[in-house]
Predict the 3D structure of the following.
Amino acid sequence: MRKVLGLVTAAALLLGGCVSREGPRAAPPSDQSSEQPSDPPSDPPSDPPSDDECTAEEIVVTGEPGQRPVVMLPDTCSPPSELLTHDLVAGAGRVATAGSTIQVNYHLVTWSDGAEVDSSWNTEPPRPIEVTDLGGNNNIIAGWNQGLLDVGQGARRLLVIPPELAYPDGSDPIKPGETLVFVVDVLTVTGP
């Protein structure tokens, strides 16, 4: 009996492994004659935006570190409700920890309309900013204090910051409840 159950379990696992996670497979050809007229293919209906939250990987950022980035936001998913961080380029230098001082260039767009709000690349040459006491008592938004910990010098990091970690009530020109999308180039990391 154990041998039979073992074989049944093994067969179920083997068949389970054959199921595609990419969705249903095409139906096998029908037995109908090919002489029947078929309708011409039509354009598939466009998909409405999903209620699923976007991931960092769905946000497209072009441009090399040291150059002004271009951010393209997806319109097929909703803004994330939690802080997202994603290194577009990994840092190769010192890593920022609580209390570190970092110097960065940054580019900010708002999720609702993809509009640029601010950028250190708006001047020539770009004008980086310095953040002292990272993760501690400073005057930057919580999304930066949390999202830039553990970033390496030389990194280009994408931060998607929900309103609660930025400006929940808005701050001109940022509307209340706005999700912020930053691309941050980390130029230097000093301190602890």
Summary: Confidence is low (pLDDT under 50) at residues 1-49. The longest strand covers residues 180-190. The radius of gyration is 25 Å.
